[in-house]
Structure formats: structure tokens, C-alpha cells
Amino acid sequence: xxxxxxRQDGHAGRITLNRPKxxxxxxxxxxxxxxDALWRWRDDAGVKLVLIDAEGEKAFCAGGDIAExxxxxxxxxxxxxxxxxxxxxxxNALVAEYPKPxxxxxxxxxxxxxxxxxxxxxxxxxxxxxxxxxxxxxIGLVPDVGGSYLLARAPGRLGEYLGLTAERMGAGDAIHVGxxxxxxxxxxxxxxxxxxxxxxxxxxxxxxxQTPPDAPLAAQQAQIDALFGGAQLGDVVNALRADGxxxxxxxxxxxxxxxxxxxxxxxxxxxxLREGTPNIRKALELEYRFTSRSMEHGDFxxxxxxxxxxxxxxxxxxxxxxxxxxxxxxxxxxxxxxxxLDFERQERAMKIGFIGLGNMGAPMAKNxxxxxxxxxxxxxxxxxxxxxxxxxxASEAATDADIVVTMLPNGDILRAVAAEVIPAMKSGAVxxxxxxxxxxxxRAVAADAEAAGLLPLDAPVSGGIGGAAAGxxxxxxxxxxxxxxxxxxxxxxxxQKAVHCGASGNGQAAKICNNMILGVTMIATCEAFALADxxxxxxxxxxxxxxxxxxxxxxxNAYCPAPGIGPQSPADNDYTPGFAAELMLKxxxxxxxxxxxxxxxxxxxxxxxELYRTFVEDExxxxxxxxxxxxxxxxxxxx
Length: 639
Hints:
Strand content: 5-15%
CATH architecture of the largest domain: Alpha-Beta Complex
CATH class of the largest domain: Alpha Beta
Distance between the termini: 62 Å
CATH topology of the largest domain: 2-enoyl-CoA Hydratase, Chain A, domain 1
């Protein structure tokens, strides 16, 4: 997704809104992406601060993208908007309560949803183009996304004035009112961002800040306090009319453009928040009482129609400015009885692209779909997997996916697929490769993914086709801690164990070391059974001794190559592959390739590789389980 660019830059988690042509209006997907990134970085020791900015000169973020809300609301579907607000408000609270510094750079218009992203952090930077406002009453809402919390904390009655009139604040006013902290000329912003990312230290930010411009609202404070101190909307309207001055008349004209029910409820919310100690959660909960009802019982749909759809600027509000019944206000602000606002972290279904639907990939993808995730699969062969949507290309499967999983035959194919899908993936998504490939390819793909703002993981698996079907695989994972934590819910679905092995490529390193041991021990186990046969030792007796003695191994105890001995295994099915001999040969060759590259002495690994090469390429091993080495040794004599 190109609407938002999420990445780690030095010691900073970077979030860049990237819809400059739409004034960086916030979409539902952008809200979810911001929340996911913040949770990912919360406990990541490598991320010292979060830096939020936006592309373009005109706006940091001019509000929420409300077209979909209008479309669903006019169709009688109010659930979409309610879900949007719940998820957005949860993200707003996360920003406000974040345990690490959150630095935002607020150029141009910062309104509505932009305030929720940019004005709750610890360090809010404004410049000469900054214009901050809460214009929600003009479209039938109340100041939301936590904006009511900021308004309630403003000096005097400035909160009431700004919430009801939607007056825009420049840099000086924004700092005076409490929507911003620091003024810095915008020509210096990029240098400051670079320094923040490199150091992860916000202390020098204040040393760079300059004296802010004048705050006109400060000069008007006394007059605003007198005019906007009424208990109800009618009191404010009467005060403005009675004053009759130019300022009062201008303010009254602004109120006439807005939804009376919204203004009356906004005033009530601000007043309630001033009782006791206001906090962000209380503000958002009060806001949600109104917004969750705003389409069905308020003026929100009419407000969008007049301002955005038809653009006639002539909304037909439900109430007159002079008469908003108290009972209607009470109905909008009573506690929510349906699905309530929850500030805890929400586990949500992911959109997953799955590329490579072979014997292993297909059951893995099926398990993810069965768990409730949206899975879009692609394979060169035409493959139908229950619950998995089919894409026409790898890039289509990867588009807008939260996680792209690959299960591919070798490193060359992985590199080719990565070259196709990385440009199609949205920033901050995880590229999770479950193939078994060479370490060099894994690390090269990881480097390309990181350069594109993605989170790469190499996570080869152990457990075979049976483990893939049963969801009992073991994942050996290389990559960042943040990427690992993001993918962990998927590992829990597809497997019984996941081990984070360290940096990119370490998953493949662990897999080839593990399978080198497996190849060697299987050969030794098969040799021992063949020797026992020639010595006249009963196979069951052999198993009973070795499986409980120092010869214990997975090859003996869990995957016994002797038919009819020990737990059920491929040997009991005429060596139909659970793990094919040619795949073992592939993994052993990878181990020796890595050994050569790292100058490691692996004589048993070399010997096992040559034995499996002979078995697969010169004998009858291809298409048989790797434990079919036993009948091979049975038929052979020494020398």
C-alpha cells in the first residue's frame, strides 16, 4: 500500500502519510497500519522514538477519508462507520499513551483525523504553514479523535470557541491552545528528522526550536471567555447576539453553518470533560457515544452530502440553531449499548498472500484460511485450496497483503518471486519465506525487502507434509524481533513451535544444520538395522534397546525406518514419502554449500550428501521417503 510508508530508520520508527493529492486524508487501512506499527515498536528496544510526518506541502492530514462511510451509511449500513471509529479511536489512545516519544511534524492543514494522529504525541512540531482545526460540527459530527480532550484542556473558553466555530489555528495559536509544542521553520525539518532518526534522542529537539509567532487567540482570550462561557448552546448564541460586535457577528455566522445538534453535544462533551481530571479515554468514549449514532440519528450523512458529495454547501440540519431539545442531546450522549469502544489491543484477521501451493504450501494456506484469515494464493500450477482465493499472479496475491508467505523449491525461484512481489507489497508488511533455500539467497532477499520498507523473515519448517496438514510444524525463524512478533500468530496456526534464531538468514542456517544431523542420523539408523539383521538381532528387540538407550534419536524413536516397528511412519506405507529422499539431498547439498562458504569441516555431512546423491540419482531413491535407505542397506554387502 503506497498510502502510508512505515519503516524503521536508525533508532526511529517512521510513519509517513503518503496521499498528498488527497491532502493525506486518513483511510481505515491507514489507521490499522499505524496501530500495528505502534504495537510492533512498543517493546522493540531498537526503536527509541516514533516519528510521524507526511508527504506534500499542503497538509499533514486534512481529516478522515469519509467517502466509504457515506456510501455504507446511505445504504443503511452503520456498522462500517462504527467499526472505523472504534479502531481509529483505539489508535488515537495508543498514540496519546505511548511509552516512547512520539514526534509529529504538522505542516499545512491538520484537521479532524489528522489531529488524532499528529496532536496527541509527546513532541508536536509546527511551522509557518501549519493550520490546525477541528471542523467536525460542519459535517454533523463532534470534535472527535480525542480532539475534545485537547479542547477541554485549552485556556479559558478557547476550547468551546474552536470546537463550535472550527476556527483555524496557526503555529502560535496551536502552541498557546495546546495542540502543538514547538515551532521550527519548515526548512529545517528534514535535518532535524535525520538527526532524530540517527540518535533516537529528542532532547536536542527543544534546543532547535525557535520562538513561535504571535498567538492572536491569546489577545482575544477575555472576549472569547465572555462570549463562550454559557452552559448550553442557546446561552452562547444569545451572548453573541447581545454583543453585536464584529467579532461576535463573525462567530455567529460560523455557528449558523454548522449542525446545531453537533454543536450542542460538543459543548456538553467539553463541559463534562472539565469535571474532575480529563483523560484521553474518557474523551474518546464520550465522542464515540455521539459518532456511533451520528449516521442514523444525527446529521452526519447530510453533512457529508452537502460538503463532499453534492458540494452545495446547503445542508438541511435536523434542528434550528435556537432550539436543540435536551432530550435529543441526551439520546446522542447516553452510554452505548451495542459494541463498545475497547482500548485493548485487538487481534484481527490478516490479509495473507500465499505463493507456492504445493504439498507443503497448500495445507499451510488452508489452515490459515480455516483460522479466519483472508488468504489469496498463487501457484504456477492450477491449484484449488479450500478457503483460499486464487490470484492470477504472485504480485496480485501480494498486493495490500499484511503478510506474504512463500513456499518455493529453491533460492533462484525465491529471488525471482521476491523481485516480483516486493514492489507490489505495502510498506511495513511482512515477507515470510518458509522455503528451504541457501543462506545467501535468504539474506539477499531480506536485504531487498528491507530496502523497500518491508519486514523480511526466513522461516524454513520441519515436520513434513503431515505436520503441514496437522498444523504441527516447527519454524526456524531469522529476521527482526518486530517482524517475528507480527508473524507469531501465523506460526501458532501453522505449527506447534517457532524459534527466533536471530538475524536474517539464521532460520535457513538452523534448518540446514538440523537437516544435516537428520540425514546423518537416518543413515546411521538404517545401517544399524541392516547390521542387526545380519547379526540375527530381532528388529523389535533392537528398537526396544536403542530407543531407551544412548542410541536414542528422532530417526529411531519418531520416524523408525523399519516397517512395523515403533510409531507409524512412512516405512509402514512402503516408504511413500513423508519427506522425500530428493528433498533430503537438496538440504544436504545446501549444508555443504554453506560449509564451503564458511570454511567449515563437515566430513559426515559430506558423506551423507554423497550417499543420498547415489541413492536418488543412481539408484531407486527418487520418489521414496528418505528413510528408504534401510532396504538399500539390507540389499548391500560390505564394500
